[in-house]
Amino acid sequence: MDSPLVFQHLAGADRQLRVAVVTETYPPEVNGVAMTTGRLVEGMLRGGHRVQLVRPRQGAADRPASAGGFEEVLSRGLPIPRYNHLRMGLPARGALTRLWSVQRPDVVQVVTEGPLGWSAVSAARKLRLPVVTEFHTNFHSYSDYYGISWLKQPVHAWLRRFHGKGDACLVPTAELAASLTERGVRRVEVVSRGVDIQLFSPGRRSEALRASWGVQPGDLVAVVVGRMAPEKNLGLAVQAFDRLRAVAPHARLLFVGDGPSRAALQAQRPEFLYAGMRGGEDLAAHYASADLFLFPSLTETFGNVVIEALASGLPVVGFDYAAAASYVRDGENGWLAPSGDEAAFLAAAERVAGDAALRAHMAARAPATVVDAGWDGVTRRLLAVLDDVVRAHERRGAGELAA
User: Fold this and answer.
1) According to CATH, where is 3.40.50.2000 located in the chain?
2) pTM, two decimal places
3) Which CATH number describes the domain made up of 5-194+374-402?
4) Residue 321: CB atoms within 10 Å
5) pLDDT in tens, 106-116
6) Domain 202-370, CATH 3.30.70.100 — does that match?
């Protein structure tokens, strides 16, 4: 039987930090966690740090990459039910323990909370390595959307235990930090998400792309970007669109993304535009070629799409939490409804859609509100937390030796 891990050793010059990053999703997979992790790894490498990336093999032809201070270690994984393009890493505690016994990292950064992530935390603890976890997904909130609300408390307890084993837990907002602290997770640190302001820009707007959608000049296009799944609350976006058509009768609704909810929605509402998965400049053009961003989700830990939309010059209608609470200001670059208040969300969508002058004002101001959210600053913040965790670990070790 094959070993769960395929090792590829890479010797290199000493760096400031040797970071073992363990994640169950990574580019070219398309989702917020994968994109964020990829950007942060790139930033650490640009800063001269060494990164060992541990992730599931994404396909039969997948091979570990190595270059400069970068090394990949591939684990076995299984497709995630209903998301066959994503894989869940299998437990690999013994293999990781052997790997890190020979090639000790300064710190282990565990991105995802699945079996591979749990194995990484366990292996790091056995080897007395400092470990940082990341809280990316409100799994306990998802249960309401999948008819398994009875699992909410057990999942909640499991997440608290998982993140309680680390030296620090990283979250993207102060709001979430306060929530996890109240739940008993110790040392929660805020490391926000970033946006590529060179890629996402109003300059990507394409009249040719709009024409391909059958949109006439001056018609409003509302867009929803992200995974098409029950937890994204897409039904509310549809309600909002139906409501706003009272003031914008020629409006169109565009979905960018894919997922288990797409087929049913497309069968029910074939008049909507379904662009599927997009990436890079193509994704940026889809954002910028729309006129209004609808963000109905209530299960996000952050919501990268919010700041991507703002950078693209789109007013955002969303709920007052996560990224929207941090960046959207009523009447300036969008409109927020109190968290969970669907009637207020519908009213906000209708208000913004029906006032072209207000919408133009918000569109013009939107990019400036995220100009300081570049990835370089986010990476520096992450490295500051990792360095602090390593130093605290060294001080504890020195104290134990002195005793």
Assistant:
1) 5-194+374-402, 202-370
2) 0.84
3) 3.40.50.2000
4) 21
5) 999 999 988 99
6) no
